[in-house]
Amino acid sequence: MGIMGNLLILLLCSLCLYLFVALVKVLHKPWWTPIRMQYLMTSQGIKGPPYRFIHGNTKEIFNKIKETSDRPMNLSNDIFSTVEPHIYEWKNKYGKNFLQWHGPQAVLVVTEPELIIEILNNKDRAYPKGKVNRCVKKLLGDGLVKSKGEKWAKMRKLANYAFHGESLKLLPAMVDSAKTILGRGSKKGSDPVIQKEDPNPEDIARLKTMTMIINESIRLHPPVIGFDREVARKIKLGKLILPANLHLRIRNLALNHDPQLWGEDVNYFRPERFSQRIAKATNNNTAAFFPFGNGPRTCVGLNFALNETKIVLSMILQRYSFTLSPSYTHSPVRVLTIRPEHGIQIMLHSLNSEEK
């Protein structure tokens, strides 16, 4: 074989090697990385639905959500299996913590209270917020909710003053807004705590029953069903060793509807369960209830939102009773937050005898 033949063989070998390396690079993320990740987590007792090449479990998730959304739903607080049917099914099948796949990206779903609090209370930035969806970023901007690092710290400091230092000064403005909605001519009702027209900070602090009702409402129907984080570096979480770049999905909707935490009456509306400490309501699991988050990134508007809710509700209940409209169709859906798909239709009944 001559020199030309040897050169041709060398060229073909080089081409084959190049194609092999290119193929390895192409398949590394959608094939080799998932296999390695699944083995690593399975060896630690973390199971989950099997990885499907390229799409992961996204098709299964989409089909399960579509299937449940197409079914009529009875008037019930048992919304977990409807809003997140895949989480509901896989939690019951694989355990409180399991691995699912969004394309080739591994996602550890965490519903164990102790691990969740460890993640949310971490202060050395081991579990930062992940990349923001383009649509969400366009909607929310690069503000406090989605920012991180030094930028978040500066914005949080300013927001703390706005929502805490100035929140009590905003109570009169909240009352005026409620008056505008309800009408200034309405007379007061017979509320046993707030007997006068305008509630003040002392009145709001005494609304224990209303606080219990609000807590039970956001337990059963949390506005935010969970939080997403990333693992910034290899780290130990509980007894687990988590690799870098693993995504974490914290699901408080799963916690709020867990009978092991809340009892067999978990799907019943029982505000009295919050009459004492959270630990008593959750079988001594104080980490099981965090509707506004936990740790450094707890919702900065928590107190503001609760005060606003109490003011508006107290002023409504001074003037009206209400019942659910017969035309109401129960269909909770998730669009950023949980909301009724067809709105809330209620019928208000005036408590003023001359208006009846």
From TrEMBL:
Any GO molecular function: oxidoreductase activity, acting on paired donors, with incorporation or reduction of molecular oxygen
Cofactors named for this entry: heme
Membrane topology: Single-pass membrane protein
GO CC list: membrane
Keywords: Heme, Iron, Membrane, Metal-binding, Monooxygenase, Oxidoreductase, Transmembrane, Transmembrane helix
Classification via PROSITE patterns: CYTOCHROME_P450
Binding annotation for heme: 299
The protein, known as: Cytochrome P450 protein
Top-level division of the source organism's lineage: Eukaryota
Cellular localization per UniProt: Membrane
InterPro entries xrefs: Cyt_P450, Cyt_P450_CS, Cyt_P450_E_grp-IV, Cyt_P450_sf, Cytochrome_P450_Monooxygen
Major subcellular site: membrane
Pfam families the record matches: p450
Protein family membership: Belongs to the cytochrome P450 family.
